Amino acid sequence: MSQSSQHWIASAGQPLRGTLEIPGDKSVSHRAVMFAALADGVSTIDGFLEGEDTRATAAIFERLGVRIETPTASRRIVHGVGVDGLRPADGPLDCGNAGTGMRLLAGLLAGQAFDSVLVGDASLSKRPMRRVTVPLAQMGARIDTGADGTPPLRIHGGQKLRGIDYTLPVASAQVKSALLLAGLYAEGGTSVAEPHPTRDYTERMLAAFGVDIEFSPGYARLRGGQRLRATDIAVPADFSSAAFFLVAASIVPGSELRLRQVGLNPRRTGLLHALRLMGADITEENPSTHGGEPVADLVVRHAPLRGIEVPEALVPDMIDEFPALFVAAACAEGPTVVRGAAELRVKESDRLAAMASGLRTLGLQVDETPDGATIHPGQLHGGTIESQHDHRIAMSFAVAGQRSDAQVRINDTATVATSFPGFDLLARGCGFGLAAG
């Protein structure tokens, strides 16, 4: 079975065993190729995620005049052109499914001398972009969107940007990053304050590339006019991808998995804390640091889980992992309550609605609210799940199928390749019941 399979059949398999190499972190891979392209000199990126989203970002920079070599899988050698060295593309730049790519590029391209057009696939074309175009306009950018604030983004070059002090109305690492990248091209300083701290990949990596940037949880500031120095980046394994195996091994009796050198950025690991509050048995071994990012092996063993009220303070640090958490909640003892997660409604799909609907299809009661849900656990049954063309929904129900009493058919799984190429092969190799539909 290949990753291009359009449908999966998930069913109870074996206890999950083995040592897994999870693909590279998507967020770090996007930023590594962007910043290396803007740097002076040649940078090598090891552990680059060979996913459709990250390849789309790399392809965009090649069209903007950056030479990028691929000597082996997961390695990129980027010949940086400097912050002022990008060249206009000969047509629209296709971000695929990558919201990260599009939002960060909006900030970066707003400061260029030339016009650009950013487009995406059907899913990305429905996602809100005003949250990034509005503050960029305050900096002097000119970006046109669709009538409802969605892509394509038409970015007018040659604008004089000025630094601003901006407080995000909704915490978003992508919007923060877009403003900081625009700030590199702005006159004066740019600062971003957040209502809740979000991931600081951009800040850590800009510092690694030699940018003088001040940052602390919930705040970042830099001054315009700085240059980036080439540096080599080792991309850690993606915690969001590891999440599915952390949940699966927790809920399948007899399981024990080791996930090697997973990125443990403190703004990313809310799910790890939530699972431990539920009683999960997850330990960290062999800690180290890669490119400013903390990493460690995660060893997870089956343990009985209990329902919890997810602390709202954890929500911003696990926004991509909620689909996996819903599956853990479905297999826990007692209900799990989620609040403060309205952001889930504007991801690749409305993930609150998609997960609630899917779990109901498998026989559970889920009470939805505007910003969360209460999941009432029980025996999972068989059924047909619509993934809503969302990679994380598809993988979450592949995990749910491991505890169902009948087959779970998951439709439209091709989008899994955007973030986790080879998920199905890795899952089957450690004991999942998972086949092409």
TrEMBL record:
<feature type="active site" description="Proton acceptor">
    <location>
        <position position="320"/>
    </location>
</feature>
<feature type="binding site">
    <location>
        <position position="127"/>
    </location>
    <ligand>
        <name>phosphoenolpyruvate</name>
    </ligand>
</feature>
<dbReference type="InterPro" id="IPR023193">
    <property type="entry name" value="EPSP_synthase_CS"/>
</dbReference>
<comment type="subunit">
    <text>Monomer.</text>
</comment>
<dbReference type="InterPro" id="IPR001986">
    <property type="entry name" value="Enolpyruvate_Tfrase_dom"/>
</dbReference>
<feature type="binding site">
    <location>
        <position position="174"/>
    </location>
    <ligand>
        <name>3-phosphoshikimate</name>
    </ligand>
</feature>
<protein>
    <recommendedName>
        <fullName>3-phosphoshikimate 1-carboxyvinyltransferase</fullName>
        <ecNumber>2.5.1.19</ecNumber>
    </recommendedName>
</protein>
<feature type="binding site">
    <location>
        <position position="26"/>
    </location>
    <ligand>
        <name>phosphoenolpyruvate</name>
    </ligand>
</feature>
<comment type="pathway">
    <text>Metabolic intermediate biosynthesis; chorismate biosynthesis; chorismate from D-erythrose 4-phosphate and phosphoenolpyruvate: step 6/7.</text>
</comment>
<dbReference type="Pfam" id="PF00275">
    <property type="entry name" value="EPSP_synthase"/>
</dbReference>
<feature type="binding site">
    <location>
        <position position="347"/>
    </location>
    <ligand>
        <name>3-phosphoshikimate</name>
    </ligand>
</feature>
<feature type="binding site">
    <location>
        <position position="174"/>
    </location>
    <ligand>
        <name>phosphoenolpyruvate</name>
    </ligand>
</feature>
<dbReference type="GO" id="GO:0009073">
    <property type="term" value="P:aromatic amino acid family biosynthetic process"/>
</dbReference>
<dbReference type="InterPro" id="IPR036968">
    <property type="entry name" value="Enolpyruvate_Tfrase_sf"/>
</dbReference>
<keyword id="KW-0057">Aromatic amino acid biosynthesis</keyword>
<dbReference type="GO" id="GO:0005737">
    <property type="term" value="C:cytoplasm"/>
</dbReference>
<feature type="binding site">
    <location>
        <position position="99"/>
    </location>
    <ligand>
        <name>phosphoenolpyruvate</name>
    </ligand>
</feature>
<feature type="binding site">
    <location>
        <position position="320"/>
    </location>
    <ligand>
        <name>3-phosphoshikimate</name>
    </ligand>
</feature>
<keyword id="KW-0808">Transferase</keyword>
<feature type="binding site">
    <location>
        <position position="392"/>
    </location>
    <ligand>
        <name>phosphoenolpyruvate</name>
    </ligand>
</feature>
<feature type="domain" description="Enolpyruvate transferase">
    <location>
        <begin position="12"/>
        <end position="423"/>
    </location>
</feature>
<dbReference type="GO" id="GO:0009423">
    <property type="term" value="P:chorismate biosynthetic process"/>
</dbReference>
<dbReference type="GO" id="GO:0003866">
    <property type="term" value="F:3-phosphoshikimate 1-carboxyvinyltransferase activity"/>
</dbReference>
<keyword id="KW-0963">Cytoplasm</keyword>
<comment type="similarity">
    <text>Belongs to the EPSP synthase family.</text>
</comment>
<comment type="function">
    <text>Catalyzes the transfer of the enolpyruvyl moiety of phosphoenolpyruvate (PEP) to the 5-hydroxyl of shikimate-3-phosphate (S3P) to produce enolpyruvyl shikimate-3-phosphate and inorganic phosphate.</text>
</comment>
<dbReference type="InterPro" id="IPR013792">
    <property type="entry name" value="RNA3'P_cycl/enolpyr_Trfase_a/b"/>
</dbReference>
<feature type="binding site">
    <location>
        <position position="172"/>
    </location>
    <ligand>
        <name>3-phosphoshikimate</name>
    </ligand>
</feature>
<feature type="binding site">
    <location>
        <position position="27"/>
    </location>
    <ligand>
        <name>3-phosphoshikimate</name>
    </ligand>
</feature>
<keyword id="KW-0028">Amino-acid biosynthesis</keyword>
<feature type="binding site">
    <location>
        <position position="26"/>
    </location>
    <ligand>
        <name>3-phosphoshikimate</name>
    </ligand>
</feature>
<dbReference type="InterPro" id="IPR006264">
    <property type="entry name" value="EPSP_synthase"/>
</dbReference>
<feature type="binding site">
    <location>
        <position position="31"/>
    </location>
    <ligand>
        <name>3-phosphoshikimate</name>
    </ligand>
</feature>
<dbReference type="GO" id="GO:0008652">
    <property type="term" value="P:amino acid biosynthetic process"/>
</dbReference>
<feature type="binding site">
    <location>
        <position position="351"/>
    </location>
    <ligand>
        <name>phosphoenolpyruvate</name>
    </ligand>
</feature>
